[in-house]
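queue> pop job 88
queue> type: inverse folding (structure -> sequence)
queue> payload:
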């Protein structure tokens, strides 16, 4: 991770070391969120079968929400004084979500998205303590909202597998 910009130091009541640790956690969350965005969009394009219409629409709703989320996460990283990662290679290094090659069947797409959403929750949960220790309520709020969103999405997707 690049260091903070020294030309106009960030002075928001959170130490540079704490901001760095928070930015590292948020960068992993950004990578997971972007990877999930790509996977969801890919599945949206390629889903087939009896659930086509409902899954195609559901995936579109999800990747649209994720597009907003990646912007929110990246802007939070910038707000606390660090550059946001943005290359495929950086995301591949930082993400905990495996790439999907080939086109899985619709139910496998759903299962893979359950796993990926839960991975994002775990990544957000891992980043949470640093933000909480630093009294970074803005990052805590962002992490809480991301966990809530991905837990609910995983539940809804999992319900389709019954």
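queue> result:
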């Amino acid at each position: 991770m690049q260091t903070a910009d020294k030309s106009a130091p960030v002075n928001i009541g959170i130490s540079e070391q704490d901001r760095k640790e928070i930015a590292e956690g948020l960068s992993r969350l950004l990578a997971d969120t972007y990877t999930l965005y790509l996977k969801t969009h890919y599945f949206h394009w390629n889903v087939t079968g009896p659930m086509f219409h409902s899954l195609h629409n559901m995936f579109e709703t999800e990747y649209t929400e994720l597009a907003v989320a990646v912007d929110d996460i990246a802007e939070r990283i910038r707000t606390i004084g660090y550059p946001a990662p943005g290359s495929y290679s950086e995301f591949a290094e930082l993400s905990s979500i495996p790439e999907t090659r080939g086109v899985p069947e619709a139910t496998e797409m759903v299962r893979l998205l359950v796993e990926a959403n839960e991975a994002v929750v775990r990544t957000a949960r891992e980043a949470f303590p640093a933000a909480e220790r630093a009294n970074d309520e803005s990052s805590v709020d962002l992490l809480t909202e991301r966990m809530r969103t991905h837990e609910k999405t995983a539940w809804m997707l999992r319900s389709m597998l019954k």
